[in-house]
Amino acid sequence: MYSSALAATSGKTTAYGSRLFVYEVAGLSQNTDNDSLDYPIRRSGSVFITVPYERMNQEMRRITRMGGRIVSIKPLDAETPLKPTSNRSSEAEVAQPQQSKSNPTEKKRKPMTQAKTKVPVNIYKPKDPFIGKCIENYPLVAEGGSGIVQHLTFDLSGGDLHYLEGQSIGIIPPGTDDNGKPHKLRLYSIASTRHGDKGDDKTVSLCVRQLEYQHPETNETVYGVCSTHLCNLEVGADVAITGPVGKEMLLPDDEDANIVMLATGTGIAPFRAFLWRMFFEKHEDYKFKGKSWLIFGVPYTANILYKDKLEEIETNYPDNFELTYAISREQKNSEGGRMYIQHRVAEQAEKLWTMLQDPKTHLYMCGLKGMESGIEEGLSPFAAKQGVEWSDFVKKLKKEHRWHVEVY
Q: How does the record say this protein sits in the membrane (predicted)?
């Protein structure tokens, strides 16, 4: 990570001058300093940054500006950190992906339905990933849309990788970075229910957008390493998978819960899993009876991912599901500007506020980092009219485990 920008050595002849160091950094958040990276920065987990000796102080300052905290520093070719690290095993520390040595006959697979009582975490770790197989890879963006977004499904047969709606898996792209080191894993929100798109407990699906941006110095087009690998993955190809991880975005077991979902782009992934579980699957132990509401932000109508299925749910379950689009390049807000998700939230502030007063209502956000401030922009004025400080209300929702955010 950061290898293209930071890997060049200084050419100094001192003992350290030509060496590279690895910073383990926690707490990074997406902002203008890092929004051109070729991978999303999550709210949790570590990021590993390779830094030449001559730029160590400069990089420390940059990490501080991005809100990060340096957990450890160690020479690239050494195992011992220059200062103590957390006891928590890092999700980003990887070796070259190999077929898992686990013998399927020795590890009895747990049914997905058992996962309800215990959240599965890190069944497969980066040093020993599960090698799945791609069985589906098809486009989601219609003609006239922007970018490339693919729906991928991986076969999990022969392993013990099980998960819950709202969790993520790691993907380790093949090959090495500019330093000759194996690529680090990237996290992707799971887009399928715990039973998989085939309903047989043997698959997992992702919704992946190919990352593409202009290099700030060379102005050349740069493509995300892992997203490009996945978007071009052929059916039948192997894929190195880790995880699952995450407990923040889990769907409540309460069948009468109200679920408000705010998504931008591929942030729809966990909500696809939610909605498929609520409305397309049949369960003896889970029959959704509450109200779910998806507010979905995209640039064009052609970028509405899973559009036909979402509108099928809206038609068949009008009492239990509401669908609202914010189409920025086609719709105008009340001031004549582009329609973003925060404008829809502001329009629906009274209705959203009323729903959030119900202790059975959960609010979920998934997508770009700016969403969180956008929701505050949309709802805080209405909260103020009720004599409530928005930040205090958010603290209350968090304390009650009704505020669920995954932004990058």
A: Peripheral membrane protein
Of 229, 181, 227, residue with least CA distance to 49: 181
81: pLDDT strictly greater than 50: no
366 flagged as catalytic = yes
Of 215, 245, 275, the residue at which a domain comes to its end is 245
Euclidean distance between CA atoms 3 and 26, whole angstroms: 18
Specify the amino acid at residue 283.
Answer: H
- Residue 349 phi/psi, 5-degree rounding, is -55, -45
CATH number at residue 327: 3.40.50.80
Q: Is the residue at 217 inside a domain?
A: yes
pLDDT of residue 47: 67
352 is in an annotated binding site: no
* Euclidean distance between CA atoms 373 and 389, whole angstroms: 15
Contact 297, 340 (CB under 8 A): yes
In the residue annotation, 226 being an active-site residue is answered as no
Task: Establish whether 188 is a catalytic residue.
Answer: yes
Q: Does residue 12 belong to any structural domain of this protein?
A: no
Record the tokens describing residue 26, joined without a space. 């926690």
Percent of the chain predicted with pLDDT > 70: 75
| 217 and 274 belong to one structural domain | no
pTM value?
0.71
Domain containing 228 equals: 112-245
Q: What is the number of alpha carbons within 13 Å of residue 329 lying toward its C-beta?
A: 10
Whether residue 388 is found in the same domain as residue 337: yes
Closest CA to 294 of 281, 284, 305, 285: 305
Q: Which residue of the set 39, 163, 340, 408 is catalytic?
A: 408
Catalytic status, residue 373: no
Stated length of the chain: 408
Query: Is 134 known to be catalytic?
Result: no
C-beta separation of 221 from 378 below 8 A: no
